[in-house]
Design brief:
- The chain is of the alpha/beta class.
- It has 3 domains: 175 residues, Leucine-rich repeat, LRR (right-handed beta-alpha superhelix) (Alpha-Beta Horseshoe); 117 residues, no CATH class; 86 residues, no CATH class.
- The protein is built from 16 helices and 10 strands.
- The strands form 4 sheets. The chain has a 4-stranded parallel beta sheet with strand order 1-2-3-4, covered by helices on one side. Strands 5-6 form a two-stranded antiparallel ribbon. The chain has a two-stranded antiparallel ribbon with strand order 7-8.
- Helix 7 packs antiparallel against helix 9, helix 7 packs antiparallel against helix 12 and helix 14 packs across helix 16.
Amino acid sequence: MFNLTITLFQVPQYEQLQILICNGNSLTTLAGVEHIKHLWKLDVGNNQIRSLQHLSRFIALGSLILSNNRLQWIELQHIRHMFVLDLRLDGNTILDADSNYRQHVLDCLPRIWMLDGIFVSTSERNQVDEFFTQSSLTQKPVRHKLARDIFMPTNLKDRAINGIFGSKATELFAKFPMNCFVNSELDKRRIKHLASTVQDLLLTEMRNDEGKKHDEFLTENRHILYHMVDIRQNHVEEFNMFLILLVTHILFEIPVDLLNNVFDITHIKTIGNLNIDHIFSSSEELKYMITSLIHAVTPIMLIVLASISMLYFIIWIPFIIVSLIRLFYDPLFLQDVTILVMTYCLYICPLASPFISLVGLPGVRRRLRRNHWDMPWVTRTAQTRIRPIG
């Protein structure tokens, strides 16, 4: 695992590599990556990649980060057959520009488990199918980005023979056969396997990257994220509160004393046998991934919500998760956030107040000032004070 200014032609000597991070290396091609037979995580975000052709022999990847490149829709044909447990595609301008971005990605890629931090459930798959069915009945139907019968070269038709299988892919298909029937029960199993994959990748990166924060929450129990999914089944309301509190903490950096007060009032410092207080002091990446997993496994019980504002908060949680993960991987996304806030704040402020609170980030404040935006913003700070931004 490394992150250097390289070309992937240098990579074949590392064919046993399982994690390759080439984020922000000005890569224009993935040529050479097909030689890494045991590859399980590939991070090539923030590059200049236009083609995914060199990924076409892979059968499965645990994590594939393609954010902020120059991909077009037709390139997704090269990974259409792949099982990707965690895929990031945000920040590719042409893809992002489509108002039905998520529906199209799920339509093009029927075997991805999580897209941009949000789990893809069987129910959502059915909704996407229904979306295209209903659209086909209108005067201006939404067209599929990829044809149903794309030409396939002979050497790629039988990937069971010609495809690239690493040990992790073999383990995946032992638990989830390629043609297994998909339903809500399988969703639960997929989320648990996804949790294990996330923890395994994070632990591996911690061991091999001195720059990674040492997360005590992960090292205490190598299967803690897997067990967290199990614990949720008997503690739905507690996990609802935990999800809301964690997202709020990510947005506002809740002071420790205030956080402890919340724990005392809600009695969620320990849920089942899970001690959650370490999560709030963990790395940003871990907090984002836990938020994604909890959102995937926790059905939101709207009937127990005490106020309309809380209802709005819950509705916007998926959007917040995607935005926060995107901010983590792409600092330049701050510009997009600012434009969004400045353009729509008067219309969606009551509905999107958690997202608009991102203006509390220093980078956003600096950009607001640079653009002479003089609306009397108010933000909640980690010092427990409320002050205007101007």
